[in-house]
Specification:
With 245 residues, this protein is mainly beta. The chain is built from 2 helices and 15 strands. The strands form 3 sheets. Strands 1-2-3-8-7-6 form a 6-stranded antiparallel beta barrel.
Amino acid sequence: MLSDYIIPGDKIELTRARGQVAKRSDGSDEPKKAYKSRLYDIRSEDEIEIDMPMEKGHLELLTVGAEYDLCFYAKKGLYQCYARVKDRYKSNNIYICVLELTSALRKFQRREYYRFSCILDMQCRKLSEEEKKQITESVEFLDTDLTLEDGVIVDISGGGARFVSEMNFEQNTLILFKFSLGNGKENTHKYSIIGRVVLSNPLEGNKGKYENRIQFVNIENREREGIIKYIFEEQRKIRKKENEV
């Protein structure tokens, strides 16, 4: 039963499903971004109600018929499924969105790592067929003479990253992903990691650019710990600056 995994009050993150273009009431495209919400009630095993998402104090009226990728932040862990907006209404001054689940709820491992928003230069390229056969080995087997394409990391975690570049990839494409973390001095560490493309979509409002999301493959523990340590230190710096204001 759904109630065995998620309960009213659980936080939810919604992102528009791949290939979906939802329209606002004025006919314009609904922006592709992550919405924050909360599970309001469970109607049945394939239907739930959530609070209508809000952005900077304004309601984001999700379009009926639009499909979304849902991530539930439950006490038992992170769960994911797909859902379609079935209805929306107002009850006791609360705006409610009714969602029909279009896939089974599953444990979602990829987002167990906190995603840190950032702006970091990176480079990448697709792996060749021969390189894919050696995927279980270290990245040292890769051909370092091949040209790398530039891009910008916009968020990163111990499990993967999201970046913007001029390259568009098919889902599950394996790529060499290179970037550096640190203060630009002796503490800077260079990373060369193999990543698997989870999502690759055109970047809205920026022709010729693509938003790509990858999951790190065969990453060594010391590298993952290094990324997590970097994120922790950057968060600490941000909190310190906020406290000084």
